[in-house]
Every structure is written in C-alpha cells, then in structure tokens.
Design goal:
This protein is of the alpha+beta class. It folds into 6 domains: 3-129, Four Helix Bundle (Hemerythrin (Met), subunit A) (Up-down Bundle); 148-251, ACT domain (Alpha-Beta Plaits); 257-341, no CATH class; 351-405; 408-587, Heat Shock Protein 90 (2-Layer Sandwich); 592-730, OB fold (Dihydrolipoamide Acetyltransferase, E2P) (Beta Barrel), CATH 2.40.50. A 6-stranded mixed sheet has the order 15-19-20-18-17-16. The protein has a 5-stranded mixed sheet with strand order 1-3-4-2-5, with helices on one face. β19 (660-666) and β20 form a beta hairpin. α2 (37-57) crosses α9 (254-271) and α14 packs antiparallel against α15 (381-404). The radius of gyration is 35 Å and the shape is elongated. The termini are far apart. The relative contact order is 0.05.
Length: 731
C-alpha cells in the first residue's frame, strides 16, 4: 500500500471514529428525546457515511454490517419502527462493534468479529420487528418472462427515467466490439454475478438495412433493469473493456438517489469548503471519472459562452446523474458558501507533532529568559528594548501554542451518558445525568488522562451515592436521582465536579472503618473534611458487600493517584441525606504557566500567578497576630493564616532582606506566604520532579531559570491546606 493510500485510510479511520462518537452521543440523548428527528438523522448520517466511505476502500465486512444497521435506522426515520430503550441498547452495541471492526483494519481476519456481526444483526432485527431472525424487506423485482425487443430512441427521457427501485442501464455497443473479440452476452453474464438482471430489452435503432449490414459489426443495444446492492462504479466496471467505443449510462434507483443526496450532505458538511461538484459526485459514487471527463469535454467544446451550460445541467442531459442528486449537491454547496466566511477552517494535526511544538516553545521560553537576564547584566538599553520585544513575541507564541492543545471537556462528559445508562440499568435505578460547563477548555493531555478517574467517580455516585427508587420515595425525594457533571475555571485551575443528590457520606461510619483498617488511630483528632477525604485511601470502603461495580476499596485510591499524577487535588463535600460533591482541581496545562518568582533564603521559588492575590510588606501593611502559638495576619479586618517558607523549607533568611507576604488563594481559601524577596512575573516551563521527590509536600514541580539555576514550583493548594490545618489545630 502506497503512502497516499495509507494516509487516506488513516483519515477514514479517524473520521469514522469521530462519527461513531457523534452516533453514541445522539443515541444517548434519544433516551430522553425519542421523537427528536434531528437526533435520529444524526445517527443515520453517521452510519450511512461510514458505510459509504468503507465501500470506497473495499471494507466489505464493515459495509455489510453497517448496511443492516442503516436499514433499521431508515425504518426509524420513516416511523415504521419505534425508538425505545431496548433498540437504543442494541444500536449502542452495534456502534461498539463497528468501532471494533474499524480498529481491526489491517489486522488478520478475526472470525469472532463475524460471529458478533451475525448475533447483533439478529438482535437488532428482533428488537426492531419483534421476531427472531426477521429479515429485511427487499423491493419487489420487476421480472420479465422473456426478453422483449422494442424500438427505443437513443436519448429519449422516457427510456431513461427511473421510476422504480432498481438500477437502469442503457447500453449501446460500438460497431467494433465484435472485431475486438468481445462477446456482448458475456457482459450480461458478469452483470448477473453481481445481482439480479430482472429485465433486458434489446434495441435495434442502430440496425441498418439488410443490404448495408456488415457481419463483423455490432449494432446491438440494450435497456437493462438490474437489482443489486452495489455501487455505481462497480456497474460501470462491468463494461470497462468496451467503454471507449460504446455508450454506457447507469441510472441509480430512487432509493440510491436519496442515499447519494444524504452522503453528499454529510461529505460536504465534514469538509466545510467549496468542493467542486464533479469531485464530490465521484467521491460518493454517484458519478464515474469517465462520465465527468465526457461532460467536461462537452463543456470545453462549446465555443459560445452563452450556450455553455453548467456542469450539473450537462451531467443531467447526458443521463449520468439524476437531477435530484445535482439539486442536493448544489443546495448544500450554496449553504456552505454562504457561511464559509464565518467558519474557521481546521486541519488535523498529529498529537505527537503538537507535543514537539510545545516542547520547543518551552525551550524557547527558557532561552529567552536567559538572554533577557544577560541583557540586564550588560545594561545595554538597545539590547534591553530588543529583548523586551522578543519576550512579548515569545509570550504570544506560547499562549497560541498552548491554545492549540485546548479542547472542550464536553466531549468527555458526553461519553458518560452511556456509563450512567448502563450502570443504572444494571442496578435498577432511575437516573438523570446533568452536564454543565461542557464548553470549558483544558489541555488535551489532561483530558486524555482524566477519563478514567471520572468514570470511577460517576460509577461510585450511582452505586454508593444514589439510593434505590424505593428508598428515595421513602425519604421524600423524587424517584429519579440526579448525577451532575460540572466544569469551570477557578484561580488558574480547572475544576471538575461530580455530584449527586443521594444519601451522602456518614463521617462517623467512615472514621470507624478507617480506625478498623488501621488507617488512623482512635485518639487522632481529624476535622470533618479530613475524615471525608479518608474515602480516597486504599482499601477503605463503606459498602458491606462486594459487587461487580464496587466494594473492594480500590476505585477511589486509583482516582487519587491519577489526579495527583496530574498535579491536581481532590476535595470531598457531603451532607447526610442531601448528597455528595467531589471536586477535582487540575492545572490548565502541564507544560507552561505564568509564575511569580520569589526569593526565600538563597533559593528561588515560583508561585503560579493565577493563585496570587496580592503582595504586602510583613509587619506594616498587615498586623501580625501570634496567639496560642499560631501565626495569623490581620489584613483589612480579615484574619488569614500564614506560613513562613524559610521555616518550612529550612532556609536561612537573607541578610538585610525585607520580609514580604504573598497572599495566595485556592478553593476559595486564602493564606499568606512569607518570603524574603519579590522578583516579579516569570514565564515558567514546568519540569516534572523525579519519582523520589513525588511525595515532597508543598512542591508540584521545578523549572529552569534564565541563569541556569533550578527553582521549585510551589503547590499552592497543599500550602493553603497546611496553613488551614494549623489554624484548626490551634483554635
């Protein structure tokens, strides 16, 4: 396989997976909106487009199975089959199977996939028609007992119009066909191998008088009616050896015409550009290259511009394409042209290339910082001005590069419709999933890694959090429980929240279980938030029985480890009888951030700029309060705890340094950090810590300064939590 074909195949796979995701989203929404025609059409278009595209590559197994799915969906569109939860469940299985077949492209044939196809087709037809092994209805074939011979005028619309559900082939052999060793009947025999030739009518319009006949010349013409599930190109290929000297026109059945129109719509929508009509018709199989070339040649032969017809009209006049197909293509193309100026054009970029770009931008940031430092040391005004311009450009490049990797969280959230649906069915619970903040964007690398933790949280909310319908009714709650997914930005972080309106978490029960498991001692004093966070520890579960879903005490531990690996944190809130909220706080990006550089002793530290509220001089702008051994500042009437970073990190204070307090904020809580020097804003390239420093408290990463020195990046959330903990212990 050449590189171009491999690239085209890869594009097909990627686009098909996108369509399958769209298909799943629409199917999940159909549960609550079974009469939504647009959702039904969306599912149908996805299946239809995949089938058509698979046919172009010869993936017959995908085409055959998807065709069965498409037929049932077409019946749903026509109102012949009612959409319900049972049918949606089977269609979701079919969607998963199509994905499995697409992902298996290029691998050895798997008999198991064929067996699954057969099983799902039976299940689908049974669900749709209510009978085991129900078969699809086929259009009635128009049969003729014997071939009829009749006069037909070449080019007459009456002989070429398509008023039935079968293919119509108009064939006029060239005079030299017999001389070239071709047997006209062999083409009919080959055609019959592709489907059913239901009618053949011979034409004698080209037959000369007997005295003028040449025994070696062919004067035969045929009007053929054909029934078969094939593409137009396949029928044209039958007559490929005589196409140069003969006239071959293939008109699709009415059903095929509608398929072309639907496929054209999907194709043009996906492209979003001003594609040429001829190329589009070829790509969907409504037109062959030979027919297009003939039409273009006819256009080029018209010397009078006033008499020159548009390509669409020429194709219709030559009976290559039905007028309705042309109308569908032209209408959709016009809509695209009208909004083309308003839409952003997009291209697919390999994720690896994007990662390389971000890494190079990070190195550029470090190099720029080093050059800027050198310019300051030299004190050259011209050089400083140039470096200032370079810094602004680097910052702009950084921001734009990072935005390339930002994707909405909504696509990830939408996948949980399926999770909620399946788990609710397994547990016999009635649940509504509410999604907020779907438009919130975060780094693609974060999105890829957060899916698994969110799955654990959603499943736990359904299994642990929400009561059974009977219990909810007894408690005065609606029978149907609610699970809510929410995303929003807060202080330079993104917060992902999974909440429910269930029974809530009993802190006494959690604490008793933790003591029994040896996670805490019986005399240890813990605040309510600390007790609730114990559910994140390995081996702790409040469920008495183990099920397929939960009860082993490992799910939340996995969530905690995955979130911490992303430099994130978890907050747990719960009220008995009202529900539970678990918030995951993550950095917007794992690569580059804006930081605030501070000096503590002889070391430098970076505070994420989005967490910085203000900077004040220690002991002047804020009153220092030391009561009961605690450290507080009174800032304009607000009492805030503070940490002395010199004591925390065992740094010696700088001689003559003026102490400052940096007020930081996280999760709505504020605290002060005492530092020796305020060194200003700094573009920070985040470097992960070695595994041996993974559990270092208050540090989330490192960076390289322009001087080549290493500076630690502070974990503001951990430091604020530490300050709050001291406050609680000393109050």
């Amino acid at each position: 396989m050449d590189d171009m074909m491999m690239q085209a195949q890869e594009t097909f796979i990627n686009e098909s997976l996108d369509l399958l995701q769209e298909m799943e989203t629409s199917l999940n929404l159909l549960s609550d909106q079974p009469d939504d025609e647009e959702l039904i059409n969306s599912v149908f278009r996805a299946a239809h487009t995949i089938k058509g595209s698979a046919g172009l590559f010869g993936f017959d197994a995908i085409v055959a199975f998807t065709h069965k799915v498409e037929n049932v969906l077409d019946e749903v569109r026509a109102g012949e089959v009612k959409i319900d939860d049972g049918l949606i469940a089977v269609l979701l299985e079919c969607r998963d199977h199509i994905e499995a077949m697409i992902e298996a492209i290029g691998a050895d044939a798997d008999p198991a996939l064929s067996a699954v196809s057969d099983r799902l087709v039976k299940a689908l037809l049974k669900q749709a028609h209510g009978e085991e092994g129900a078969v699809e209805a086929k259009p009635d074939a128009v049969k003729a007992d014997t071939p009829a011979t009749y006069q037909a005028q070449v080019g007459r619309e009456e002989s070429r119009s398509v008023e039935n559900d079968q293919w119509h082939i108009s064939l006029r052999f060239g005079e030299d066909v017999l001389r070239n060793g071709m047997d006209p009947l062999s083409f009919l025999r080959y055609l019959a191998s592709l489907g059913e030739v239901t009618n053949v009518a011979t034409t004698v319009d080209a037959m000369p008088a007997a005295a003028e006949m040449d025994a070696e010349s062919c004067y035969l013409g045929m009007e053929i009616t054909f029934n078969g599930d094939v593409e137009k190109q396949a029928l044209m290929d039958v007559f490929d050896f005589v196409a140069e000297d003969s006239l071959v026109n293939v008109m699709p059945p009415n059903s095929k015409i509608s398929e072309y129109a639907q496929l054209l719509e999907a194709l043009i929508e996906s492209r979003g550009n001003n594609a040429r009509i001829g190329d589009l018709l070829i790509e969907v199989g409504a037109l062959t290259q030979r027919e297009l070339d003939q039409a273009l040649a006819y256009q080029a032969g018209c010397t009078d511009d006033t008499a020159k017809k548009p390509l669409g009209e020429v194709l219709v006049d030559q009976h290559a394409v039905h007028q309705s197909t042309i109308n569908a293509a032209l209408g959709k193309q016009k809509k695209i042209q009208e909004r083309r100026t308003q839409e952003n054009r997009s291209i697919r970029v390999d994720a690896g290339r994007l990662d390389q770009l971000i890494n190079l931008v990070g190195e550029l940031v470090i190099a720029g910082a080093g050059s800027g430092l050198r310019a300051q040391q030299l004190g050259d005004e011209t050089l400083l001005e140039s470096m200032s311009l370079v810094s602004r450009l680097v910052e702009e490049i950084r921001d734009r590069s990072l935005r390339l990797r930002m994707v909405p969280i909504g696509e990830t959230f939408s996948r949980f419709n399926r999770v909620v649906r399946d788990v609710a069915k397994e547990l016999d619970k009635s649940i509504t999933l509410v999604i907020d903040g779907a438009e919130t964007e975060l780094d693609k690398s974060v999105v890829e890694k957060i899916g698994d933790p969110l799955t654990h949280l959603v499943r736990n909310a359904i299994d642990h959090g929400l009561e059974s319908p009977q219990q909810r009714l007894a408690a005065g709650k609606p029978e149907k429980g609610t699970v809510r997914l929410n995303a929003y930005h807060d202080s330079g972080n993104i917060v992902l929240e999974v909440s429910d309106d269930g029974a809530g978490i009993d802190p006494d029960k959690v604490l008793a279980k933790a003591i029994a498991n040896g996670l805490v001692s019986a005399n240890q004093k813990l605040s309510r938030p600390e007790i609730l966070r114990l559910i994140l520890e390995a081996g702790l579960t409040t469920k008495e029985t183990v099920s397929d879903l939960s009860g082993r005490g490992v799910g939340m531990d996995v969530v905690k480890k995955n979130v911490e690996a992303l430099r994130g944190s978890i907050e747990v809130e719960s009220e008995l009888g009202q529900g539970t909220s678990i918030r995951i706080r993550l950095p917007l990006t794992l690569s580059i951030i804006d930081g605030f550089l501070v000096g503590v002793g002889r070391a430098s530290y970076v505070i994420p700029l989005d967490s910085v509220v203000e900077c004040i001089e220690h002991g002047k702008e804020a009153e220092v309060v030391r009561e009961h051994g605690g450290d507080y500042i009174s800032l304009r009437g607000d009492v805030l705890p503070f940490l002395d970073l010199r004591q925390l990190f065992d740094e010696q204070p700088r001689e003559g340094a003026r102490e400052n307090i940096v007020v930081v904020q996280c999760s709505g809580q504020k605290a002060g950090l005492v530092v020796d020097e305020l060194m200003g804003e700094y573009q920070t390239v985040i470097k992960p810590l070695n595994q041996i420093f993974a559990k270092l408290s208050g540090i989330s990463g490192s960076t390289i300064l322009g001087s080549g020195e290493v500076a630690m990046i502070l974990d503001v959330g951990a430091l604020v939590g530490k300050a709050e903990q001291r406050t609680l212990l000393l109050s």
